[in-house]
Amino acid sequence: MSTREKVLEEVLVEEQVGNNNEIVLYNDDVNTFDHVIDTLIRVCRHTAEQAEQCSIIVHYKGKCTVKTGELSELKPQCTQLLEAGLSAEII
């Protein structure tokens, strides 16, 4: 005869409330890769590699989420992206 042991595991689940807003950057035919990369580094505090990857995704896919967070944090960043001539919105 064999003995089987049942183990009950307790799992802690943390929910992030209010962190479901995103800044989505859209492709355009006006801005250069360098301008988009520099703007993402300055405004969204991306690393150079992250900004470059986002710009490539935007170019080939048409859009990319470049920042997530609380609305109060994202509004000024989205405004700065728009002032820099980029196409972006908070969703």
TrEMBL record:
Residues 22-83 form the Adaptor protein ClpS core domain. One of its GO terms (molecular function) is peptidase activity. It comes from the Bacteria. Keywords: Hydrolase, Protease. GO terms for biological process: protein catabolic process; proteolysis. Transmembrane segments: none annotated. The keyword Hydrolase applies. This is Clp protease ClpS. It comes from Flavobacterium akiainvivens.
